[in-house]
Structures
1.
Amino acid sequence: MDYPPPKSDRMGKSRLFRIFLILGSVFMILLIIIYWDDVGATHFYLHTTISGPHTSRQPPEGNTDPKPKPDTDKEPSFLSDIDAFVNQFLIGTADPTEQVRGEPLASDANQNQSNESKSDEKFVPRREWKIHLTPIAQELRQRQEDRRQMVRGLCSGNSTLDFPGKNRTFDEIPNKELDHLIVDDRHGIIYCYVPKVACTNWKRIMIVLSESLLVDGVPYQDPLDVPTELIHNSSLHFTFNKFWKRYGKFSRHLMKIKLKKYTKFLFVRDPFVRLISAYRNKFEQENEDFYKRFAVVMLKRFGNYSDPPASVVDAFAAGIRPTFSNFIQYLLDPNTEKEAPFNEHWRQMYRLCHPCQINYDFVGKLETLDDDAEHLLRILRVDNVVQFPTSHRNRTVTSWERDWFANIPFESRRELYKLYEADFRLFGYAKPEKLLHE
């Protein structure tokens, strides 16, 4: 005959259970107090993409570790160790009831088993979720606030800075001038790309997030896997200037809704260094298109070549190419803008992204690219989906400015500054006094 456990044992177990319950509740309350985002002590969130889990193709052979390697120079903190520990156990913890695209249903398992030998298709596990226990550094938050305040202040009516288009409304911007605003509806992001400011890698990011490019029916997961020749293909990027064809008379209204609700960002660069980079990329390398459209004009007007070679190959073989001085003369020539607007690679950044009409949430700079990219991806809550690609640093640096401008007359330098003054001031770049005065 079984006897019930003594009353004292039952009371002891009940008391022990209550103690554990109380301790667990206290621990959860403390955790909430410490890490609750609204308190501002830190940034604690569990995040996924709006669209749920994604799949992607396997990385190509020879690229088994496409993700950037961690910065071993940084001293790890206690909370960063916790980040890594927690996230280690969250890989593949998406809702098990959700089916990964391309994954066979259980009812089809037997049928598909016979076809396995016919296909070597592999399925990539669901992307992991991330928990961030470490806060975004206050220094980075303040940096962004300072940059946004700078733009807002100079765009206000009280500012003495004046430049073409400053006071027009968003509705007054022609559609053709909105072609640099890339929209990702899946994650609620708008990116205004500026050529020569890491835009190739940010376009890679946007392609991965929007899943606008598929291989074997599966979207890319690693930005570095996106074929280089397709990155700048305009058909892969849904921009504001395409709204008219899709939405007709409702396009402007929808743009304003998205501008209000989506997170908007751009990246900028020292204006003079950007010009040097554009010249080096387009005129010091064999580029047939830029040679015919721009270099021939520069050579005829400013290079004393009445009949320059017809192709860039012939020109380079003969040692003929426009100098940096010819390039600056071309930019300062009033006839250049009369014939056509500046090419996007040297058009002023404010003309590409309209910061006085669009209230950007994030202003990144090439000079602080690593920190800004990591900060932005956390703000967007997509750092569980993509990482900013590592790349070779652009060799054009500010310290080279004096060498590049050595043969440019001081008067031309001052005219050039006036041409790009709005970019310098809006985005917080110091006036290059040493370059402008003897």
2.
Amino acid sequence: MSYLIVAKNDIKLFITRAMVAVGTNASHADILADVLIAGDYRGHFSHGLNRLDLYLEDIKGKSCKADGQPIILNESAATAWVDGNNLLGPVVGKFCMELAIKKAKEAGIGWVVAKGSNHFGIAGYYSLLAMNENMIGMAFTNASPLVATTRGKEPFFGTNPLTVAAPANNGDSFVLDMATSVVALGKVELADRKDESIPDNWAIDKNGQQITDPKNLNALLPLGGPEKSSGYKGYGLAMMVELFTAILSGSAVAPNVRKWSDNHTTANLGQCFVAINPEMFAPGFTDRMSNLIDHCRNQEPVDGQPNVLVAGDPERENMRKCDEQGGIAYHINQITFANGIASQLNIEPPKVHSD
């Protein structure tokens, strides 16, 4: 029995209990739980339950505030500059995207940047907030230095994810959610937790050599991998994200963001949230979006390959599977990890049943 199933609500309650147990405002804990569950439900296990200890340590170490509200420092009809007040990243992110949506409904676009934020979980959570209001949603964040440049040996940029979500007809959609590194750090962490190897184009050791043992990780590679396979494009995208987040907001800029493990230090991440109202542009946006999506999916695949997908399809399939099996399937080592947290905090562990 290598996987155990936990109902979405049960894992949410567990995450909320854990965060409240270390002093987090209950409503903030609830927002964080929503974001982490969204990660696991959509199949991005690197950014769900796997990340809980990061947030717990930030609160326990007082490098992140357990209560308070983000502050609007400056705004116009379509823009805002926000101080996240060093709160949990999901609390800052939800505040900012809801503000961007409000502005987009009134002005056609909302562009909100925040300083003083923290790790905000799965980026797609925020673009989906806008998409669910029939908007195009985008979100960007900088992060702890984990990714080498194409010719460097040491971490310089964060994984610097970006997301774009757009509605189509009949509940269909395009939902891009990606790191600007080959993979997110959490995928390497999960491989380590499961005692698995990693592909040799994911990461490098201290000598700049590509590795397969996650324990030898020194830095991730930018999207594309080494320079010879166009890793400079991922390098460029990471720098673009830095521009929209840290440079625009006045937050910490790569490589001066705190290290991943420095829970005693304030992160001061920069983030950017955009909502665009397609009704302000050419009529028929969702029709054209659906046509594009259908054309992509209807391409004839190469022999032996599965059907062509569009961004968001793997997540939809994972959500369907979760719904059918009555919850999220977690590797047994992840449940052991959760049970360890429950024991440390003297709270009830998540309820599980076998796959």
3.
Amino acid sequence: MALLVYVDDIVVASADLESIQGVKTQLNERFQIKDLGPMKYFLGLEVARHTKGIAVCQRKYALELLDDTGFINSKPVYSPTVLSQKLSKNEGQPLEDNIQYRRIVGKLLYLTVTRPDIGFATQQLSQYLDKPTHLHLQAAHRVLRYIKAAPGQGLFFPTDSNLQLKAFSDSDWGACIDTRRSVTGFCIFLGNALISWKSKKQPTISKSSSEAEYRALAATTCEIQWLFFLLTDLGINHNGAVAVYCDSKSAIAIAENPVFHERTKHIELDCHLVREKLNNGIIKLLHITSENQLADPFTKSHCPKSFHSYISKLGLLDLYNPA
């Protein structure tokens, strides 16, 4: 059984309904709780159940965000970023009042709980909270127009999915034009369900694309190890190594080479980490083409057609789509 507690809101999850009732009875004797029945709404998350699976979205939260910002009747767009635009802290006119920008980005960050498709765009916007410009605000407005296109889109967890982990790891070398730091992107699936993803600027500068890819690989490996511990706590034994798909042959070669060279000395700790998990059979590295790299939209901008091609493979679902 698992209990998720946030202040005075509690979610109880178990495969045994009698055990759930027993826990609720004990809690009621001590705290006088109010039973709201099967979870349908929790902290802005809307949960819909079906025999085929569970869908989680934040449609009400998204519509309130659009209404508060005046974009409820805006013209929708079909990608959260513009392919030709790269944001910089030195371009554009500084905003006289940055409260609106900060409020938008803060709400977008919470919306990424069920919207991995805006993960990269929100990561980009969050870097300019101290001194945003009108260009940054325009980029934030484009994300809002993208949300307007499908406010009910969210995660879907199918019931027929297996419990085998698989991961996709990628990076964009020197993506930040201000610091020349690379961007790490990964997404991890449990069967066909997307359960973990990240889009984050790397803390140090990478001297080569191989180094940037390897740092992303190390971050993905750490997340996989944490998920292993989480599944164990939930009583789930993961059989076999986790397939980690990477589109960099050089990064895979570094991981599989037992000898350290001068070129890999500066990332030796990452090498030890990945190789240890590789040798212990926790992960196995597989090469994949860039066209099939599902972590790619977490590292860079795409045109609407290319972006939709990647996002459609993440297992997202819009219950409110009439189609």
